[in-house]
Amino acid sequence: MHRYCGALLAAVLILSFSGPADAQRYMSFGYGAPRYRESPEVNLYLSARYDWLLRTSPGFRTYRMWKECHTINIPPLHGDCIISFDQYEPVLRR
Description:
Elements: H1 2-17, H2 21-26, H3 40-56, H4 58-69, H5 75-88
């Protein structure tokens, strides 16, 4: 009886983890950025869009300043983080 338990357990595991072939098509595994962002052209486009939004959208700029600087608890460094936005991405005046 015990020698059949191992084979039965293996069969149950194989059947439980195997699914339709269509399910595998929609699943993706990986670390880091999604595939569509791996292209250098797409990366350059997204970087330019980020810079443009920082310069032209007050709401986006405020959000990014909060997101990037709110975890810095040392007052001089927190101030430096906020100032760096004006230094590297100044607001475009219309």
